[in-house]
Write a structure and sequence with these properties.
Bound molecules: adenosine monophosphate, manganese (II) ion
Distance between the termini: 56 Å
Strand content: 15-25%
Strand order of the largest sheet: 11-12-10-9-8-7-13
Shape: globular
């Protein structure tokens, strides 16, 4: 059931014991919105705890209160008045969805969220869940401390590519400006999030070598196999290296995490990649989406490239001549 922001605030006000969660494979917005909510609700006198069923990437480990995020134990059961699911539909919360029978309040900005049998506040035009939480602070009459501001700014910054992507709206800048007034230092956040080890840079360079163009150059893919994946803590930002290619509309990174478990990240300039991800059982936003394909690396690659090509033909982003031009051009084929 879809509800308004006011009703969302009312649900939070009337609950005493609240569990918070966000999506697995957590990003700055998932972690930032969880940590901001934790602090906001605690200041309101609520009994709050936060669970994310995944490892927190090391670049986010300096965020205020991050040490309070727990991973649920196998079979753990907790009674609560409300489970708040942030920055995702309920299917990407791992084991957390099973730890409680409490009613679910879902706050999200993904266009693909269907939100059946739960209370859903979904605002696809918001750049980040943190932008929604910023507005929610006003509904709740919550004071935004410097620590809360750091968490909210982190989500805005990561989901907008530091205010570069097409989801960046005047409201996003206004929220960011207010958060800077609350004490956020944007340079410090950018430095932390962009930090890479030398080893990770070497993995990035190896990943770049796997890059291939498809369909006459309108699609580019990066292929990270299990062995390469084992050498890095994160593939965050890898897609940004390839989406900049002049001829490219759709960029993807295919990562084989373990046997028959391949993760897909997609970005686009004009194509609706949320629809492609949706067809493959995933979701996301028009210009940034993802899915998981439970097939071998090779099969996943064929399924993905075909799905992208097919969708681009259907939406007239590719001519049938370009579709047939599906020979792969690898970076190594170019004279430097
Ligand atoms: P990423 O490429 O991992 O940064 O993800 C891009 C966007 O797609 C994010 O907003 C994700 O929340 C969303 N997304 C990624 N993977 C999935 C998935 N398996 N199911 C639904 N949404 C996804
Ligand atoms: Mn997210
Ligand atoms: Mn988000």
């Amino acid at each position: 059931m879809r509800i308004t922001l006011r009703e969302t605030a009312d649900k939070l006000k009337s609950a005493e014991k609240i569990l918070l969660t966000a999506h697995i494979n957590p990003d700055g917005d998932a972690i930032g919105s969880t940590l901001a909510m934790l602090q906001i609700l605690r200041a309101m006198g609520k009994n709050v705890s936060a669970y994310i069923d995944d490892k927190i990437p090391k670049n986010f480990l300096t965020m205020p209160c991050v040490e309070e995020i727990q991973r649920p134990a196998e079979g753990e059961k907790i009674s609560a008045d409300l489970l708040v699911v942030l920055d995702t539909s309920i299917d990407r919360t791992g084991k957390v969805i099973d730890i409680t029978d409490a009613p679910i309040l879902n706050i999200d900005h993904h266009v693909t969220n269907k939100g059946e049998n739960i209370y859903l506040y979904d605002e696809p035009t918001a750049a980040a869940t943190c932008e929604i939480i910023f507005k929610l602070c006003e509904e709740l009459g919550a004071n935004i401390t410097k620590e809360i501001a750091i968490c909210l700014y982190s989500g805005l910054a990561t989901d907008t590519g530091f205010f570069n992507y097409s989801n960046t709206k005047p409201a996003t800048f206004r929220a960011a400006a207010s958060l800077v007034e609350c004490g956020v230092q944007p340079n410090l956040i950018a430095e932390k999030f962009e930090e890479r080890t030398f080893r990770e840079l070497k993995v990035m360079s190896a990943a770049l070598q796997t890059t291939k163009l498809f369909f006459g150059g309108k699609v580019v893919g990066m292929f990270i196999d299990e062995e390469l994946f084992k050498q890095t803590d994160t593939t965050e930002g890898f897609i940004d290296l390839i989406r900049v290619i002049d001829s490219v509309d759709v960029a993807f990174v295919l990562t084989c995490r373990e046997k028959n478990l391949c993760r897909v990240s997609m970005r686009s300039k004009t194509v609706n990649v949320a629809e492609i991800a949706n067809k493959l059982g995933g979701g996301g936003h028009i210009r940034a989406a993802g899915c998981t394909i439970q097939k071998s690396f090779f099969e996943a690659k064929n399924i993905l490239v075909h799905a992208i090509g097919q969708y681009m033909i259907e939406t007239e982003k590719l001519t049938s001549k370009e579709f047939l031009l599906n020979q792969e051009i690898s970076l190594a084929d170019f004279e430097i």
